[in-house]
Design goal:
By secondary structure, the protein is mainly α. The protein has one domain (18-355). 74% of the residues lie in helices and 0% in strands.
């Protein structure tokens, strides 16, 4: 595909942003903290209430990065290589998921999870439909214990499936920035309005898992990528806007649980915009807190965030089931040690070999 003559110049390769590893680290630690209630409900307090909003940070960051990669490829080559895109995603995601599912199946056998529930749940995870299994389930529990966290992976993969086609059709460099922002902004607004209407008669917990009701965060991230690559907002302006945005995000994390009506009445969309502003300020390089996000420890957590996200919940569920009569501090210690070990094993022995192949593929 060729660019329109008036299209803005976009660099041929999106630069590596070290602080984005720190953003991933913050997001996954928020989710882990939220799920610690299964292991240590008496030790983990009611504040912060919104640790699950780490998932929304992941959504915005994913929308930003995927769109930035697609746009830079389109600018450099004049096209989007769909085969290469999906092969790279498969090499990044599937090996770790396969190793995790082997452990999940072993856990289900030992824990006595009904075979049909486990089979249906694993198939839903494999085909990245876990979120819809939760929404459409006619029984309780809707998904096998240990797999509930995979709903967000399903939302992201469904986005990855259609978004390159969307970039090709109406959200790429063929179209002027104003047109793209208008179309994407209208889509985000439509999702926000639909969510606010539906929550009047639909349990928030069901809306929470629906791809169509969570896609606004991914699209906001995509809009931010367009703005950064094609308009280059002033770093100083972004740094100034990022402070109130950060305060809003922090307030939501501290006080708004995932099913708060405030979030369904526009809060989720405002949260996504606030996260996008923070990401733009981080990329701009003129914002003070960027240095904190570049801290080696936080970046290390961010680099293993995918494996940590997969494994922590299964470990917590297993500890709750089998060590429920242990003291809370002992349960917590075992849960964290096993989670760290499983995450490191996944990263070192499963993810790294395939990531090396992914980097070779990207260099071709």
């Amino acid at each position: 595909m060729t660019r329109s003559p008036g299209a803005e110049h976009v660099p041929g390769r999106f630069p590596f942003v070290p602080a984005f590893d720190g953003v991933r680290g913050v997001a996954v630690l928020l989710v882990v903290e939220f799920h610690l209630r299964r292991v240590a409900p008496g030790l983990v307090g009611s504040i912060p209430r919104g640790g699950s909003l780490g998932v929304d940070i992941f959504f915005v960051l994913s929308g930003f990065l995927i769109t930035a990669l697609l746009l830079t490829e389109q600018s450099g080559t004049g096209r989007i290589g769909f085969g290469g895109f999906y092969r790279r995603r498969a090499l990044r995601l599937l090996p770790a998921l396969a190793g995790f599912l082997v452990a999940q199946i072993a856990f289900s056998v030992l824990a006595g999870i009904p075979g049909r529930l486990e089979r249906d749940s694993v198939l839903a995870v494999v085909f990245y439909a876990a979120n819809w299994k939760i929404v459409l389930a006619d029984s309780f529990p809707p998904i096998a214990d240990g797999l509930a966290q995979t709903w967000s992976l399903a939302v992201e993969e469904q986005f990855y499936l259609v978004w390159p086609l969307a970039v090709l059709a109406f959200a790429g460099l063929r179209f002027r920035l104003g047109v793209v922002v208008t179309v994407l902004g209208a889509t985000v607004a439509a999702i926000a309005v639909a969510r606010a209407v539906l929550v009047q008669d639909t349990p928030p917990g069901l809306l929470y898992f629906r791809t169509d009701m969570r896609a606004d965060a991914l699209i906001v991230g995509a809009m931010a990528a367009h703005l950064w690559l094609r308009a280059r907002p002033s770093p100083r302006l972004l740094a100034a806007l990022a402070w109130p945005a950060l305060v809003f995000v922090a307030g939501c994390v501290l006080f708004a649980s995932f099913n708060s009506r405030f979030l369904f009445l526009g809060g989720y969309t405002v949260l996504a915009v606030a996260v996008a502003v923070v990401l733009l300020a981080v990329v701009g390089g003129a914002w003070g807190p960027t240095a904190l996000l570049e801290h080696p420890a936080l970046r290390a957590v961010g680099r293993v965030a995918y494996g940590l996200y997969l494994w922590h919940y299964l470990v917590f569920v297993a500890v709750e089931r089998w060590l429920g009569d242990w003291p809370v501090t002992s349960r917590l210690a075992v849960a964290l040690v096993v989670t760290v070990a499983a995450t490191y094993g996944s990263w070192r022995f499963v993810e790294q070999p395939f990531l090396r192949r992914k980097r070779k593929l990207a260099a071709v």
